């Protein structure tokens, strides 16, 4: 067998070359080998016919049958795995209802299709090309659904193994990938069954069989490398371990290579080429056998079959090499190779449990080898006289590998085919179902966008505007300028502010907003308090049970330690509410301080004119007018800046509102599902998309920086202009009161707008907080319900345990009491018997001297028969002699039911009476009744037999 060393084999599909044992690379005519499927069929030479399996050599119409665990044949096909019927749509429908915002009825058609796909796929248990499409279609949808749903979707898939000794023991897993692994395994089995059913007596049949065997090997390889490693939270099936799959892959490749060898023999290629093909067949069978021996799922029948085929093709390779030696006149090497071929055949025939077809093939080859060996030995010994080289010196045969594992594109690129509208696998199901991770990602993006726009841009614009008004207020602007410009009546700016307040309904709107905010705050506090009360009640119940049963028995984790995240929310929400209260008080205090002025702004112009005092019209000098105009120009620039900024803020808010990322998220989710079909989409996979989308706000950030720099320059000019203005009008106090009144109203208007913004912010805050507190309250309800359920179970267990302990304690106490009573009775009985015995001894002489003329009843009394013993029998006294009074000796008797109880005092009394002349009779005597006496406890009790 040295000539078929598998270490020298190699895949030469691409370059058609082999490497010999010494490492020399040899090209052996690739075109010749690859053209064997294109050559016309021809009749085989008689000397080579025996290398083919006998079934084909005898008749081209004989089909090869599947060799499963109990059936025989020349070739092996993988049996199908079987399963139970299941409505996968029920689990999908339930999951969509609980985890998605979409209604399951939207996907009614897809639900019906997935059930039909599974039904067709699991029913494809016959070798037919339609079964391949059904299995591929269902497998593609399972891969697609792996990105839409979790593996543990809630469907229990049950499958029976098809290999090994436990094919009747099913395995059930709640795992979509487990279902996919079984479907793909059946796809490999389908390809092997199709190869088996091909008519391998024809060139086209051999070509089809070889292709299907290579596809089966490719499917097994895909199952081994791509599907089973992703089988999370489930054990791989028993017959899908690595050892078994490696053996099956090598077996499929060996049988595909055998088809190439058979076609080469059929077409009458050169012996050297056929030897190379046969050697590779032997190598692949050898590798399959090595893996099979290590596997626990490959039965001994398969192992013996594979070993027999390995030795068969090793013999066929040496036989063909011997024929090549004969052609090249290497007679000594011919004999050696024929002898090695005969040894290989004999080893194969020694394999037990091989079927008749394999045995017949081996026997036919053996007969032919024996005939040629006999002829070669005779010719060499008589004619050529060339020494026969030892087996160790024979050149290792070259290999010609014509096969490789080939994964069907419908399996390897199923998601690309599904996305093609013209694809053969149909369209992807549940395509409109948005993964939950997409909803989460949309929320994350919206939060980041709103924080960027609201906190970074809008809030900064508002803060900049607030700094402008703080500066103007500190400079008494524009009041001081308005008093000088318009000493009588209302300035236009103040009149427009008053109209703005009146249009907004002024103070009434502020108080209405405060009322709405207080209602929201109150309802939020009620929700928070409800959740807090639930937690406190549960904690009290838990503590009461702990005091009742003790910490040793009531040993479950306290709620605060068991759910720290929930109790952390208690502190967080309390902090939010406290901060909100402080902010509300500050806003309301600011409103109280300026409420009268805001009411005045919301009133009539006459009220404002009455409030603002008029000043005498002063004659402004040219210098004062010039400085006033310069200051007015700065204030007008501030107004323009505020108007532009207000428009910018509105644009930013509109831009953020219209920034809908849903379409991009769905597009990215689709790409992720196609590129990573077995990996569920997660929100973290959209980070790159978030960064790209938020980059569109970089322009706005740059504008903010530019405007901030522009504002600082404007404020500087305002300070300088106001300083110059105050210097030129220094000494003019005629409009001081008017300046102060106008400035107060201007400040009141700014406070009004600030309070309104704060109130709106507060109302939005409480709306958001209400959602958080509602979720907190619901979590508290669920948590308390779970804790109470656990407490009920634990309390029931403890009650049962304590009741059992109480019953056990009562039983023990009862047994102890009974033992104590028995011990007490035995002590009293021993004390009484000791006292009675002494008295009997003292009274015996008196009894012995009694006159024979005793009463007839006493002298003729027959002793009572002893009761049936229920314990070890007592020693019986001999029968009394007639006419002789026998002294009454107390017997040590165990009391039995029905025995009378005799007080110890009667015996002594009766004995004493007998000694006195027989005036008194024994209690059982016939001469009279028993005497009434008082029982003496010190004398104990005695049980007397009847």
Automatic annotation (TrEMBL):
Organism: Hortaea werneckii (Black yeast)
SMART domains: BRO1 (SM01041)
GO cellular component: endosome
Entry-linked CDD domains: BRO1_ScRim20-like (cd09241)
Origin superkingdom: Eukaryota
UniProt feature, compositional bias: Low complexity: 839-880
Family: Belongs to the palA/RIM20 family.
Domain named BRO1: residues: 74-468
Name of the protein: BRO1 domain-containing protein
Residue spans of biased composition, Polar residues class: 1-20
Parts forming coiled coils: 694-724
Record region (Disordered): 1-25, 817-880, 908-946
Protein keywords: Coiled coil
């Amino acid at each position: 067998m040295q000539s078929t060393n598998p270490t020298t084999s190699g895949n030469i599909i691409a370059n058609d070359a082999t490497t010999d044992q010494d490492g020399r690379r040899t090209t052996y005519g690739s075109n010749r080998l690859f053209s064997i499927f294109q050559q016309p069929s021809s009749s085989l030479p008689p000397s080579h016919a025996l290398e083919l399996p006998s079934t084909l050599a005898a008749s081209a119409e004989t089909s090869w049958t599947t060799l499963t665990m109990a059936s025989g044949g020349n070739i092996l096909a993988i049996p199908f795995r079987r399963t139970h019927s299941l409505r996968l749509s029920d689990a999908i429908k339930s999951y969509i209802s609980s985890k998605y915002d979409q209604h399951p009825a939207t996907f009614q058609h897809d639900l019906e299709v997935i059930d039909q796909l599974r039904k067709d796929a699991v029913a494809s248990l016959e070798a037919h090309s339609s079964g391949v499409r059904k299995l591929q279609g269902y497998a593609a949808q399972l891969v697609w659904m792996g990105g839409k749903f979790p593996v543990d979707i809630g469907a229990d898939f049950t499958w029976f193994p098809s290999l090994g000794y436990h094919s009747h023991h099913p395995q059930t897993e709640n795992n979509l990938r487990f279902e996919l692994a079984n479907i793909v395994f059946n796809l490999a089995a389908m390809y092997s069954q199709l190869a088996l059913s091909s008519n391998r007596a024809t060139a086209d049949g051999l070509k089809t069989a070889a292709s299907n065997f290579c596809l089966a090997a490719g499917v097994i390889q895909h199952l081994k490398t791509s599907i089973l490693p992703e089988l999370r939270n489930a054990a791989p099936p028993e017959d899908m371990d690595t050892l078994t799959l490696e053996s099956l892959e090598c077996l499929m490749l060996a049988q595909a290579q055998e088809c190439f060898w058979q076609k080469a023999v059929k077409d009458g290629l050169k012996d050297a080429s056929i030897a190379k093909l046969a050697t590779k067949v032997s190598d692949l069978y050898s590798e399959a056998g090595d893996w099979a021996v290590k596997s626990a799922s490959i039965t001994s029948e398969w192992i013996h079959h594979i070993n027999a085929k390995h030795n068969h093709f090793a013999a066929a390779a040496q036989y063909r090499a011997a024929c090549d030696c004969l052609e090249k006149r290497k007679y000594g090497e011919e004999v050696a190779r024929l002898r090695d071929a005969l040894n290989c055949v004999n080893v194969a025939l020694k394999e037990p449990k091989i079927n008749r077809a394999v045995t017949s093939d081996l026997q036919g080859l053996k007969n032919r080898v024996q005939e040629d060996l006999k002829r070669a030995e005779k010719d060499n010994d008589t004619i050529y006289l060339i020494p026969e080289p030892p087996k160790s010196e024979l050149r290792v045969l070259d290999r010609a590998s014509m096969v490789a594992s080939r994964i069907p594109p419908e399996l390897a690129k199923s998601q690309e085919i599904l996305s093609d509208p013209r694809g053969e696998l149909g369209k992807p199901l549940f395509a409109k179902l948005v993964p939950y991770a997409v909803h989460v990602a949309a929320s994350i993006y919206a939060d980041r966008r709103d924080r960027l726009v609201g906190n970074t841009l809008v809030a900064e614009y508002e803060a900049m505007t607030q700094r402008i008004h703080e500066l103007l207020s500190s400079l008494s602007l524009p009041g001081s300028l308005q008093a000088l410009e318009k000493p009588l009546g209302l300035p236009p700016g103040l009149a427009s502010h008053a109209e703005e307040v009146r249009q907004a309904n002024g103070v009434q709107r502020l108080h209405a907003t405060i009322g709405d905010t207080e209602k929201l705050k109150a309802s939020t506090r009620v929700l928070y308090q409800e959740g807090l009360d639930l937690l406190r009640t549960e904690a009290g119940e838990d503590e009461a049970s702990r005091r009742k049963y003790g910490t040793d028995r009531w040993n479950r984790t306290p709620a605060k330690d068991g759910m720290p995240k929930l109790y952390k929310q208690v502190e967080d929400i309390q902090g939010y509410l406290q901060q909100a209260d402080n902010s509300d008080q500050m806003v309301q205090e600011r409103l109280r301080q300026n409420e009268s002025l805001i009411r005045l702004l919301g009133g009539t112009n006459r009220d404002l004119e009455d409030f603002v005092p008029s000043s005498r019209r002063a004659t402004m000098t040219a210098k004062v007018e010039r400085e006033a105009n310069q200051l007015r120009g700065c204030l007008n620039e501030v107004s323009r800046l505020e108007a532009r900024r207000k428009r910018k803020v509105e644009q930013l808010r509109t831009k953020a509102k219209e920034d809908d990322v849903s379409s991009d998220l769905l597009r990215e989710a689709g790409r992720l599902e196609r590129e990573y079909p077995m990996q569920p989409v997660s929100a973290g996979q959209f980070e790159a998309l978030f960064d790209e989308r938020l980059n569109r706000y970089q322009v706005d950030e740059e504008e903010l920086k530019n405007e901030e720099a522009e504002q600082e320059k404007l404020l500087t000019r305002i300070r300088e202009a106001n300083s110059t203005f105050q210097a030129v009008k220094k000494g003019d106090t005629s409009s001081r009161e008017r300046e102060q009144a106008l400035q107060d109203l201007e400040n009141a208007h700014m406070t009004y707008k600030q309070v309104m913004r704060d109130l709106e912010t507060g109302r939005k805050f409480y709306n958001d907080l209400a959602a958080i507190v509602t979720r907190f309250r619901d979590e508290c309800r669920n948590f308390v319900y779970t804790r109470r359920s656990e407490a009920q179970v634990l309390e029931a267990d403890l009650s049962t345990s304590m009741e059992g302990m109480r019953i056990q304690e009562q039983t023990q106490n009862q047994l102890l009491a009974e033992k104590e009573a028995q011990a007490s009775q035995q002590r009293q009985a021993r004390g009484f018997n000791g006292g009675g015995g002494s008295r009997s001894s003292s009274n015996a002489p008196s009894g012995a001297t009694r006159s024979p003329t005793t009463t007839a009843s006493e002298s003729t009394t027959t002793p009572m028969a002893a009761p049936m013993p229920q314990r070890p029998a007592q020693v019986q006294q001999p029968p009394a002699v007639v006419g002789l009074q026998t002294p009454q000796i107390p017997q040590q008797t165990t009391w039995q039911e029905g025995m009378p109880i005799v007080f110890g005092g009667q015996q002594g009394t009766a004995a004493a009476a007998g000694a006195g002349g027989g005036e008194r009779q024994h209690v059982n005597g016939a001469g009279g009744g028993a005497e009434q006496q008082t029982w003496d406890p010190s004398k104990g009790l005695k049980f007397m037999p009847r």
